[in-house]
Amino acid sequence: MSDFRLDGRTALVTGASQGIGEAIARRFAAQGARLVLAARSEDKLETLAEELRSQGSDAVAHRLDLADPEGVKSRLDELPDGFSDIEVLVNNAGITADNLFVRMDLEQWERVLKTNLTGAYAVTRALARGMMRRRWGRIINVSSVVGLMGNAGQANYAAAKAGLIGFSKALARELASRNVTVNAIAPGFVRTAMTEELPEQSKKDLEASIPLRRLGEVDDIAAGAVFLASEEAAYITGHVLNISGGLYI
Ligand SMILES: NC(=O)c1ccc[n+]([C@@H]2O[C@H](COP(=O)([O-])OP(=O)(O)OC[C@H]3O[C@@H](n4cnc5c(N)ncnc54)[C@H](OP(=O)(O)O)[C@@H]3O)[C@@H](O)[C@H]2O)c1
After folding, report:
1. Which pLDDT band holds residue 35 (cuts at 50, 70, 90)?
2. Is the pTM of this model over 0.90?
3. Domains of the chain
4. Whole-angstrom distance between the N-terminal and C-terminal Cα of the chain?
């Protein structure tokens, strides 16, 4: 047993510039992984990479825009030496564009599907072959309980997050023979910029509806990601890890 260590593993986390992705990157680094931090905000990524390096970890910032899935492959072909053999991929980047369905236009629908689902497809497509060749890999897709239970005002987001679960299960079956596992994490409501906009009263109501009586913290999700990336999770694939304080049971 290695206590969920990731020593020597090279990991790429999308949406690592803040929130859940940043927390996953920090935890991975603490467990010994080498990190590629990917998102659009280069300055934030660079600040985090510098901080991780100052703590003795190997980390690089790599600008990546998932709203342009066609450009993802060439961007990932430009990963710096020593960081190009990605063994652990966390498809975490995501956006919302909420609206009641009758008011949701095609642009809002497509924007969310493109970044949250097609973006994950594009990154995985670029990196899965290397994992298969090396006969070792971990793909972790950050979905949401909204993809399991739906949420009014989030038809686009729910469709994308449910899509990520189907994607994970299909890919788990395809890649298992090459020792690459594919799992999803379904967070409940987590305290980040994404949920900050909720009115105080909505947060209180939400907390009352969660059996563990609090919103999730980014580290609650990062802990699950570390586990799924670790050697200890070698026999888990096609699983959806629900981290929601019991909101979804
Ligand atoms: N917070 C929650 O309650 C909650 C619950 C369930 C699931 N989730 C999921 O967890 C993931 C992280 O959420 P969060 O709460 O940490 O959100 P967040 O604070 O808004 O962070 C989103 C991350 O995604 C990146 N991103 C957005 N658009 C991108 C693009 N076009 N290309 C590359 N990166 C992009 C952002 O970086 P840049 O802006 O720098 O590109 C940022 O790092 C998302 O997939 C979200 O759906 C969150």
Report:
1. very high
2. yes
3. 10-242 (3.40.50.720)
4. 30
Chain position carrying tokens 């020792």: 179
Q: What is the pLDDT of residues 139-179, one digit of tens each?
A: 999 999 999 999 999 999 999 999 999 999 999 999 999 99
**DSSP letter at 8?**
T
> 182 exposed, middle or buried (CB, 10 Å; 0-12, 13-18, 19+)?
buried
Nearest ligand 1 atom to alpha carbon 96:
47
- Predicted confidence (pLDDT) per residue in 222-238, tens digit: 999 999 999 999 999 99
- How far apart are the CA of 152 and the centre of ligand 1, in A? 20
CA 151 → CA 86, 115, 158, 159, 244, distances in Å? 34, 19, 7, 10, 14
Decide whether any atom of ligand 1 lies within 6 Å of the 17 Cβ.
Answer: yes
- Of 121, 157, 235, 248, the catalytic one is 157
Which residues share a beta bridge with 62? 38
**pLDDT greater than 80 at residue 2:** no
Residue 32 identity: G
235 is catalytic: no
190 lines ligand 1 (CB under 6 A): yes
